[in-house]
Design brief:
7-stranded mixed sheet; binds pyridoxal-5'-phosphate; 15 strands; Aspartate Aminotransferase, domain 1; 412 residues; Aspartate Aminotransferase, domain 2; alpha/beta; 4-stranded antiparallel sheet
Length: 412
C-alpha cells in the first residue's frame, strides 16, 4: 500500500505551487541578470521586478508600487516595521502597543526594543476567543504612543482581528499602524487603503510562494529607518541584490491567489467543520476560538488530559502532519503563549493541536484523520496520570479554572 502523506500544517508553511515554480525557473538560468545592472542582462529582468511590484501593490490596494519594499520574509518585514518606526519616531515618544498573541517576530522585536532602547510596550490581552478589540487599542493610546502593531489573523488559533477599526483609530490619533498580515494575505481580503494600514508585513511561503521572500508595505510619505544598509536597492530602504526568482515567484503566487482564494474559502470552512464535528465526537474536547471571524483553514483543538505532542507523534506515524501552536516554539513543552493569553490553563493548553488545511486538502484526508485519531487519543489517555479506567481522575481539570462560557464538550 502506498504510504499516506497528508499535510495539515499550512500555517507553518505551504508547498510552492508548481505553476509558481515553473514561472521562477528562468530567473535561475537564462534570465539570471541583476536588475540593478544597466546592460541588457539586467534590464530584461528589471521590468519583471517593476511588474511584480505593481502587481503586489494592486493586490493589496496600495496607491503606488513604490509603497512595496521586497525583503526576505515575514520576520524581516516585522522587524523593519517595528524597529524602523521606533528609530524614526523616538523624539515623538517611546510607547508601542501590540497584542499578547502576536508571532514571535513581533513579540521578540518589541522585547528587544524594551531591553536595548528603553521602549515601553503594552501587550493587549485577547478575550477567550482570541480577539483584541479596537476599543482596547483606543484606551491604551497615550501621547507617547508612536506605533500600534496588531496581527491581521492569528497563526495558531486563526482568529481575525478588527484591523480596519484599529487603523481608523490610529489614523485619527496620528499613531502609525502596522499589521502582521502574514496569515491573512492570500486567504482573506486585505486592502491597505480601506483598512487605514500604514505598514503591512507579508511572506510568500504562506501563500504557496517560495520561502525566504516577502514584502513590507510602507504607505507613501512615511519614513522609517532601514535595517539593512548597503546598496540603493528598494530606494535605499532595503539593501541587497534582489532575489529575482523569489520576487517573481511571490508575485505569481499572489496572482494565483487573487483568482482562486474566494472560491477556496467556503470549501475549507466546510472541511474544517467536518474535521471539528468528527473530533468533537471524542470526549473532553475543547475548540479553541469559535470566533465568527476565523481563517477558513485553521482549527485548533485541545485534547484534554493528554499532551498535543503525543498526538502529533501518533498522527505523524500515520503520515499526517499537524502542529502544536507555532512551529517556532515547538520543541519546547511550554504551552502556547497565545492559548495562555486567551485564559486557558496549562493543563488544557498543553493538549492543543493545530490543523492547518489548504489547497490540497480533501474530504478523504479529513476522514482518514478522523479514522486514525480516536485510537491515538484513547491510547494516550490510558497512559495519562490524569486518566483512569476510561474517566478523568479529576473532572475539575476539564474546565481547569476557565469560566464556564468556554466550551468544553463532554459526551456520555
Ligand atoms: C510565518 C509567520 C511569520 C514569519 O514569516 P517568515 O517569512 O517565516 O519569516 C510572521 N508572522 C506570522 C503571523 C506568521 O504566521
Amino acid at each position: 500500500m502506498e504510504e499516506r502523506r497528508i499535510y495539515l500544517d499550512h500555517n507553518a508553511t505551504t508547498p510552492t505551487d508548481p505553476r509558481v515554480v515553473e514561472y521562477m525557473l528562468p530567473f535561475f538560468s537564462d534570465r539570471f541578470g541583476n536588475p540593478s545592472s544597466v546592460h541588457r542582462f539586467g534590464q530584461e529582468v528589471a521590468h519583471v521586478l517593476d511588474d511584480s511590484r505593481a502587481s503586489v501593490a494592486g493586490f493589496i490596494g496600495a496607491s503606488t508600487p513604490d509603497e512595496i519594499v521586497f525583503c526576505a520574509g515575514g520576520s524581516e518585514a516585522n522587524n523593519h516595521a517595528i524597529v524602523g518606526t521606533y528609530l524614526a519616531r523616538r523624539d515623538k515618544g517611546n510607547h508601542i502597543i501590540t497584542t499578547a498573541i502576536e508571532h514571535p517576530a513581533v513579540l521578540e522585536t518589541c522585547q528587544f526594543l524594551e531591553k536595548q532602547f528603553g521602549a515601553e510596550v503594552t501587550y493587549l490581552k485577547p478575550d477567550k476567543n482570541g480577539v483584541v478589540t479596537a476599543e482596547q487599542v483606543a484606551k491604551a493610546i497615550t501621547d507617547r504612543t508612536i506605533l500600534v502593531s496588531a496581527m491581521a489573523a492569528n497563526n495558531e488559533v486563526g482568529t481575525i482581528l478588527p484591523i480596519a477599526a484599529m487603523g481608523r483609530i490610529c489614523r485619527d490619533k496620528g499613531v502609525l499602524f502596522h499589521t502582521d498580515a502574514v496569515q491573512a494575505v492570500g486567504k482573506i481580503p486585505i486592502n491597505v487603503a480601506e483598512m487605514n494600514i500604514d505598514l503591512l508585513s507579508s511572506s510568500a511561503h504562506k501563500f504557496y510562494g517560495p520561502k525566504g521572500v516577502g514584502f513590507l508595505y510602507i504607505r507613501k510619505g512615511i519614513r522609517i529607518v532601514p535595517l539593512i544598509h548597503g546598496g540603493h536597492q528598494e530606494k535605499s530602504r532595503r539593501a541587497g541584490t534582489h532575489n529575482m526568482p523569489g520576487i517573481a515567484g511571490l508575485a505569481k503566487a499572489l496572482e494565483l491567489r487573487k483568482a482562486e482564494m474566494a472560491a477556496e474559502a467556503p470549501r475549507l470552512i466546510k472541511l474544517r467543520e467536518r474535521l471539528w464535528n468528527g473530533i468533537n465526537k471524542l470526549d473532553y474536547m475543547t475548540r479553541i476560538s469559535s470566533a465568527p471571524e476565523c481563517l477558513p483553514g485553521t482549527l485548533n483543538a485541545c485534547f484534554n488530559f493528554i499532551e498535543g505532542e503525543g498526538i502529533l507523534l501518533g498522527l505523524d506515524a500515520k503520515g499526517i502532519a499537524a502542529s502544536t501552536g507555532s512551529a517556532c516554539t515547538s520543541g519546547s513543552l511550554e504551552p502556547s503563549h497565545v492559548l495562555l493569553a486567551m485564559g486557558y490553563p496549562h493543563e488544557i493548553a498543553q493538549g492543543s493541536v493545530r490543523f492547518g488545511l489548504g489547497r490540497s486538502t480533501t474530504a478523504a484526508d479529513i476522514d482518514y484523520v478522523l479514522e486514525v485519531l480516536p485510537p491515538i487519543v484513547q491510547r494516550l489517555r490510558e497512559m495519562s496520570p490524569l486518566w483512569s479506567q476510561g474517566k478523568p481522575v479529576d473532572i475539575r481539570l476539564v474546565s481547569g479554572g476557565m469560566d464556564e462560557s468556554c466550551e468544553t464538550h463532554e459526551h456520555e
